[in-house]
């Protein structure tokens, strides 16, 4: 495997020189210590010429227009198209990774879609997207590219979305989350042993990021928990997780329970039965969460949004297709007037379930 740092790079932020001469990356809690020529665990941040650099700025693994519900975000401009991209690498080591072809990519030079921040923002606007998403791999590790792109999007009136595991240091998270408008953060488990053994991370750091995002109040926040049979799907764990969400974040932060498919280094587990997702949803709703969804399965009831006050189905969903829409122009229930938490346009988007790959012209 060629790991030489010989491609284009940009200066990276959030690092320091240690007394022993190594550089410490302060972007994520892993705090990699690097000698000259070494890459961090995420592979895309590295030490070159006594400074930290990012090796994936302006280079993507590909662009696609997705439904915003696919991120998943159910309370952020429903029905609208989101211009989505990722790069390569990841700062977690999840054995069950569902995007491993991108997150484990080591051949950064094969990132085949060069595009700068302004080019991305302009393309998204020309293609009538309402937002741009940093997704497919964790955008924390390409912070400089994501932040510049988010700023370019804001100049053109576009929102931005981060799909992330939330593994970022307090030092870096202000800059990162100040730049974006909505986030779906993976809360992969409520068990620190799970995070350490299967993801190479620590639960406390993730909870800290999530609570901080909510307390700041600037970014629309939704959470996703991928339920893996026998690993994180017990009643007790789902109960503890949803109680924490209610107590620390309040009842209106949407929680998505999604289905696992055997992949990467976890092929010995079966796919998540739909009944597990329904059970988890029932426990979390029983603990007082207003908006709990099932994902990666066909479940119109578990995918729809209801008014927590009167029970009216406000937004019906069948996969990523919207059916019912019973919100007024201010985002309130048309039956009882209770506002729905989230970010809503006066009318729903009409993008549907389509996925549309986008190619930039070379050069
Ligand atoms: S962002 Fe990458 S280089 Fe920096 S600490 Fe995390 S894994 Fe290591």
Structure description:
Helix content is 25%, strand content 23%. It is of the alpha/beta class. The strands form five sheets. Strands 16-15-14-13-12-11-9-8-20 form a nine-stranded mixed beta sheet. It has a three-stranded antiparallel beta sheet with strand order 1-6-5, with no helix packed on it. Helix 4 links the parallel strand 12 and strand 13. Helix 2 packs across helix 3 and helix 7 packs across helix 8. The radius of gyration is 20 Å and the shape is globular. The relative contact order is 0.13. The model has no long low-confidence stretch (mean pLDDT 93). Bound molecules: iron/sulfur cluster (SF4). Iron/sulfur cluster binds next to loops. Iron/sulfur cluster (SF4) binds next to loops.
Features:
23% strand, 9-stranded mixed β-sheet, 3-stranded antiparallel β-sheet, alpha/beta, binds iron/sulfur cluster, 363 residues, 25% helix
Rounded to the nearest angstrom, the radius of gyration is 20 Å
What coarse outline follows from CA principal-axis ratios? globular
Q: Poorly predicted ranges (pLDDT <50, ≥5 residues)?
A: none
The SSE order reads: EEEEEEEEEHEHEHEHEHHEHEHEHEEEE
Helicity, as a percent range: 10-25%
Q: Which assembly state applies to the chains in this document?
A: single chain
Q: Which whole number gives the mean pLDDT?
A: 93
- Number of helical stretches of at least 4 residues: 9
Strand order of the largest sheet: 16-15-14-13-12-11-9-8-20
Major sheet: 9 strands, mixed
Strand content: 15-25%
Structural class, judged by helices and strands? alpha/beta
Q: What is the number of beta strands?
A: 20
Bound molecules: iron/sulfur cluster
From the N-terminal CA to the C-terminal CA, the straight-line distance is 28 Å
């Amino acid at each position: 495997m060629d790991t030489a740092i010989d491609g284009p790079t940009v200066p990276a932020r959030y690092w320091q020189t240690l007394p022993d001469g190594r550089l410490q990356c302060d972007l994520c809690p892993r705090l990699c210590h690097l000698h000259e020529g070494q890459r961090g665990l995420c592979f895309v941040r590295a030490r070159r010429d006594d400074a930290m650099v990012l090796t994936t700025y302006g280079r993507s693994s590909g662009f696609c227009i997705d439904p915003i519900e696919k991120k998943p975000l159910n309370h952020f401009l429903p029905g609208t198209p989101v211009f989505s991209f990722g790069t390569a690498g990841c700062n977690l080591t999840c054995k069950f990774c569902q995007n491993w072809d991108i997150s484990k990519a080591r051949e950064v030079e094969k990132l085949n879609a060069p595009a700068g921040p302004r080019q991305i923002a302009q393309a998204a606007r020309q293609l009538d997207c309402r937002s741009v998403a940093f997704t497919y791999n964790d955008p924390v590790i390409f912070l400089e590219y994501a932040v510049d792109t988010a700023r370019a999007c804001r100049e053109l009136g576009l929102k931005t979305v981060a799909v992330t595991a939330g593994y970022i240091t307090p030092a870096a998270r202000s800059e990162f989350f100040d730049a974006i408008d909505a986030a779906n953060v993976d809360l992969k488990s409520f068990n620190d042993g799970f995070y350490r053994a299967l993801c190479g991370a620590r639960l406390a750091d993730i909870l800290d990021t999530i609570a901080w995002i909510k307390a700041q109040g600037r970014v629309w926040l939704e959470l996703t928990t991928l339920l893996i049979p026998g690993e994180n799907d017990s009643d007790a764990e789902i109960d503890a997780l949803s109680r924490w969400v209610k107590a620390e974040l309040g009842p209106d932060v949407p929680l998505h329970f999604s289905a696992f498919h055997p992949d990467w280094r976890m092929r010995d587990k079966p796919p998540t039965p739909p009944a597990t997702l329904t059970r988890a949803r029932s426990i979390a709703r029983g603990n007082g969460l207003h908006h709990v969804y099932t994902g990666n399965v066909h479940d119109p009831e578990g995918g729809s949004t209801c008014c927590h006050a009167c029970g009216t189905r406000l937004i019906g969903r069948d996969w990523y297709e919207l059916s019912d829409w019973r919100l007024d122009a201010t985002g309130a229930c048309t039956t009882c007037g209770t506002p729905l938490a989230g970010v809503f346009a006066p009318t729903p988007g009409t993008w549907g379930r389509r996925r549309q790959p986008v190619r930039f012209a070379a050069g």
